[in-house]
Amino acid sequence: MNHPHVIRIHDYGIQDGMPFIVMDYLRQGDLTQKLAKGLEIHELIRVINQVSSALDYAHTKGVVHLDVKPENILFSDRDVAVLSDFGIAEFQRKKSGVGERRTVLGTPAYMSPERALGHEIDGRTDFYSLGVVFYQMLTGQLPYRPDRGGNVALRQARDPVPQLPNQFSALQPIVDGCLAKSPGDRFARGDDLRRALAEISTEEIIPNAAVRSEVVTTVEIQLIQPPLDEGSSTRSEIRGRWQTTTPWTLLSRGALAILISVLIVGGTWYLIEREPAVANALFSWLSPSDTPSVEEVWNTAEALRSDSNQSLSAIVAGYSRVLEIDPEHVGAQTGLGDAVDAWKGDIREALDAGDLALAEVKLNESFNLDSSDEDLAFLFEDLADRRLAETLLEDARALLQRQGRDNVASSASAIQAYQEVVRLDPTNEEAPAELDRFAQYYADLASRDAVVGDITGAMANMGRASTANPEFIGLDSVREQIQQAATLQAEIDGLLQEASRLRALGSLIDPPELNAAERYQRVLATDPGNAIATQGVSEIIAQVQRRFYDLLSDRDFEDIDRLIDRVVAVGLGEASIAEFKSRYALERERVEQVETLIAVAERMIGQGFITEPTDNNAVATLREALRLDPGNNDAEKLLIDAAERLASVAREAHEVGLETEARLYLELALTVRPDAGEWRELRDQWLNDMEPDG
């Protein structure tokens, strides 16, 4: 490929059995390094335009890149963005056969939902990845956080597109157009993306602003922090200009603050307005005599803590500055922990109040400060569950509005959705109320049927009412009404016989309205103590459990999804449903984690990181994959490949006289494959060759 924004390949081939590739050497680093130094907004947009142009070109050649991320966006000596590393790119192809699972390689955090799930892809998957990069450039964080199991694919598939900070709201349509869940809702071409960007004036964002990812150092903070009693501008004046509150009262001698937000904890982007005129004021604060006392910094930290408008980042920065001056300061140590705990309490309150946007903002800030905090993983999962609950509520409302409650199939789907909402968000008030309305609706129908002698219809509607809410207070009176019917026992006997026949045919929970489980449930809705129906349901649960674990063993996730949907629909008990969903979620997380580890290990082998660095190499990664999935064929094959690669390097080193290196690599190969007799013999032979003659 020949394009100004695509890395140039000069030669490739195989030399002595090893593949090689010769490409341009770009010495100006990658996008991650650029952001560490700072990029002005117009430069940032220029980078996105150039990369989207490269993607357009690649797509016209039928090539999908599949690994667009900051590390693969390099810069030439002329500061031109160049897309590199087409190592896992592939040609667009016709649709796979039914049931074919695509191999997924790449970086999970930048993968589109369809790619992470192994579905068909085209060039729009690259624009999703570019959208992740764009969001990360603007905010300093990925749009979707991994869940407890380290899996990000589920969040990408179900969580809504995140909102940019207010100062970048003008760019939200670009993020929406890249990160849409459905490829059909995304930018189809880079030209469309560039046109959309051209319609947005950077003056709508922040003029002369720069985005920076590198941590602002203590020295830099001292550079911009004037004495607390100086300056004519007030906090309210600063907030009025920027619509935000800075971590420190950054007032120059008569000049406005140049720093919008400062963090002395890693992992956060900084937005800086560049005003050269302020430089002299900054350097006037360099002298050691101007270093504030512990008491002054402590007072500032406490003031930040008491200000409800302050971010956690600013509060932590305040206490951290105290601890830099006095590491043993008990008040700062306690205040730091209390502030973090209080912030997490605010997140829980926001979740319980249904303010998910606020909860997400606070969660993201906490994650930036300490990504290892286990409490945050649970809170992120809770947030994801509540967002899914909101989506289910919207779907159920729309379904009822279109079909009404008198449509049995639609009502069954709505009931199932509301029950899932109750499971995901126990504090939700709408879902239980809707389930009560369904129970009342079907109880009324059952009562009406009983009055006219339609016991079959009465029992069917009673079963539906019980499915919606078996504890609904109005069911007892309707149940008594049905039990008074002279034909009730005959109807029950008929349902039990029909259930037995359906079980013999294997129709345990399928098809809808014509399966054994629903027949038994109709009996139990009217006659809760019926021993035959109770036993029948227990046996069906046992059979379905065996089927579930067989499917889980085969990792047939599509059939498991269908099975769980049917178990919920026929109401086979909360305990069974909870067990199935919990085990299913854990297994999916495990399988996806193993797939990711194998993909990462394969990439490491290609890059030569087989046993080094110690804590992040292919062999260690594959060992972890095998710990999670013992006997995994792909992982075991890659381990063998890694060992063969090490042994090959050992032989090459031996041939050119690098004996120490040769023995080292051979020993490494043997640590991976201690059963390789040929290599042990080779090691012994080399050792013998080293011994002096007799």
Automatic annotation (TrEMBL):
The chain crosses the membrane at residues 250-272. Residues 478-505 form a coiled coil. One of its GO terms (molecular function) is protein serine/threonine kinase activity. PROSITE patterns: PROTEIN_KINASE_DOM, PROTEIN_KINASE_ST. Keywords: ATP-binding, Coiled coil, Kinase, Membrane, Nucleotide-binding, Transferase, Transmembrane, Transmembrane helix. It holds the Pfam family Pkinase. InterPro entries: Kinase-like_dom_sf (IPR011009), Prot_kinase_dom (IPR000719), Ser/Thr_kinase_AS (IPR008271), TPR-like_helical_dom_sf (IPR011990). Residues 1-198 form the Protein kinase domain. This is Protein kinase domain-containing protein. It comes from marine metagenome. The lineage of its organism: unclassified sequences, metagenomes, ecological metagenomes.
